[in-house]
Specification:
The chain folds into two domains: 95 residues, no CATH class; 105 residues, OmpA-like domain (60s Ribosomal Protein L30, Chain: A, 2-Layer Sandwich). Helix 2 packs antiparallel against helix 4, helix 2 runs parallel beside helix 5 and helix 4 packs antiparallel against helix 5. The protein has a three-stranded mixed sheet with strand order 2-1-3. The chain contains eight helices and three strands; from the N terminus they run H-H-H-H-H-H-E-H-E-H-E. The protein is mainly alpha-helical and 249 residues long. Strand 1, helix 7 and strand 2 form a beta-alpha-beta unit. The radius of gyration is 44 Å and the shape is rod-shaped.
């Protein structure tokens, strides 16, 4: 059976039909009210969506007034159509409320899922941060043991462990950047030591680049003998001052 739609239930046609069928009968106020209620309901998108069939029944009832032969018939038609219109309105309201509840449950589920994902992401970030901190600590310890051949930027044999560790770290943590600072003791002139400290820092940077670390992630600085951490009056003190310092950012 083809369903009646709101677009087809146009009120002017309905009223014209009533005017012909009830030429000798005056519409009671209850029927006028029912017609007005139908017009309002027909323009309600919620009623159209959820209870169009019920509203179509009301339209059919109103159309029967065209063949009414008495005021009692018109009053009865007005009452029945009003009841049908109210039924359509209540049904649409109930269906909309049910849909709203479903939508709310879906939203709550989505929020809960998002909260779980956010919590998982936070835990993952915390784990990565802990791993990064541990890796940085080990790298710093390794770089504390790096030594160069005296007066040159060449590493002594076996001193590359820290550099390999740093390259692996930079490969895993792609957003990390590093500053490599070179320092010397006070043996030699300021200019010589300044150049030597910069050469040593650059040498380590170049090694990292050959291992796949982007040069843009590495900053090198040479401080020469300007920032000692121990007295230069002893061999042990000078050894401590000849160092490479790593700073992560």
């Amino acid at each position: 059976m083809k369903k009646l739609t709101v677009k087809k239930l146009v009120t002017p046609v309905l009223i014209a039909t009533l005017a012909v069928g009830c030429a000798e009968l005056q519409k009671p106020q209850s029927l006028l009210d029912a017609e007005k209620a139908y017009q309002t309901a027909a323009n309600d998108p919620i009623i159209q969506k959820y209870s169009a069939d019920q509203l179509a029944n009301a339209n059919k009832t109103l159309l029967t007034s065209a063949t009414a032969t008495s005021e009692e018939d018109l009053a009865s038609i007005a009452y029945i159509s009003s009841t049908q219109i109210n039924t359509a309105k209540h049904m649409a309201s109930a269906e909309q409320a049910m849909q709203n509840s479903k939508d709310l449950l879906i939203q709550q589920g989505q929020l809960a899922a998002a909260a779980v994902i956010a919590e998982q992401d936070q835990a993952q970030q915390q784990l990565l941060a802990m791993q990064a901190n541990e890796a940085e600590r080990e790298i710093l310890l390794a770089f504390g043991k790096i030594e160069f051949v005296t007066g040159t930027s060449d590493l002594v044999p076996g001193a590359a462990t820290g550099i390999n560790m740093l390259a692996g770290y930079m490969s895993k943590f792609k957003a990390k950047e590093v500053t490599i600072a070179g320092h010397t003791d006070n043996s030699g002139s300021d200019t010589l030591n300044q150049d030597l400290s910069q050469q040593r820092a650059d040498f380590i940077r170049n090694l990292l680049v050959t291992k796949g670390v982007a040069e843009s992630r590495i900053t090198t600085l040479g401080y020469g003998q300007s920032q000692p951490i121990a007295e230069n009056t002893t061999r042990d003190g000078r050894q401590k001052n000849r160092r490479i310092e790593i700073t992560f950012k």
